[in-house]
Amino acid sequence: MKKRGETYRQWYDPILHHQTHEEALDNGTCLEVQARLSRTGATQLFIGVYRADGSLICERAYSQRAGETVSRALVWGVGYARRVAVEGKMNTSSLRPTARRWPTR
Asked: Do residues 76 and 66 make contact, with C-beta atoms less than 8 angstroms apart?
């Protein structure tokens, strides 16, 4: 069971429809990526990477992925989550200026 962090709790909104990609790697690391449209039509993205025991490695939420569709944001997020899982940490140099730790809804 994943031990969600504050980033997920702030991002979560059960009313908004979202697309999800979940994946377990060979070493047990679990990836969860969710993309959705906000109430104002902005593409939003959540990326979670968790150890095999469910403990948190990284969570990141984007309040806006300018110029990206929900599907495209999901694909980018999965690639990013895989890199985090392999490297074991977030690479902040790949973040866009619109990335926020706790996005607005």
From this structure: no
C-alpha–C-alpha distance, residues 13 and 29, integer Å:
25
Nearest one of 39, 86, 82, 37 to 62, comparing CA atoms: 37
Instruction: Kindly state the tokens that stand for 66.
Output: 């300018």
Encode burial over 34-71: b for 16+ CB neighbours within 10 A, e otherwise: bbbeeeeebbbbbbbbbbeeeebbbbbbbbbbeebebe
pLDDT digits (tens, 9 = 90+) for 7-58: 999 999 999 999 999 999 999 999 999 999 999 999 999 999 999 999 999 9
For residue 34, give the nearest of 59, 54, 57 by alpha carbon. 59
Look at the alpha carbons of 45, 48, 100, 9 in this order and tell me if their dihedral is positive or negative. Answer: positive
Please give the Cα distance from 46 to 59 (Å, whole number): 7
In the structure encoding, which two tokens stand for residue 35, read together?
């993309």
